[in-house]
Amino acid sequence: MVVDGSRQKIPLHRQFTPYLSLFALICGHKYNFFIPVFCIVLCVVAYIYGFRNHTPWPSEKPELSAYSVFNPNQEELLGTLSAARIDREMRGISQNQVQHMKTQQQQQQKREQQEAGSSSRSWGKGNKLS
Known about the structure:
This protein is mostly helical. Among the domains are: 11-56, no CATH class; 86-118. The chain has four helices and no strands. The protein has helices spanning 12-30, 34-50, 83-91, 95-120. Helix 1 packs antiparallel against helix 2 (34-50).
């Protein structure tokens, strides 16, 4: 589905920001505070227009960031060079083997949780020192 850009409603604060910025710059020039007012206006405009991570069209899906710390669950892009990837390549481990190892670890964790759940109903396995 294609969304018509002319039908999108522009938020009220975005409609008035250019006029308020121009007014502040004119007042700053009149009272000899142009440089500080310019810096403040620049920061406000950058905050309102620039620091949002959204897509302009609702039909587009949000994309992953190039920086993995900003992605959900710190998911990396394909082809990202990381220390873990270099280690895997040096050891000769393929991506299929990595996924197989992850599934084995998950299965092992499930088994340990089940064992812990079953042992919590009993008296336990005794002293670990003996």
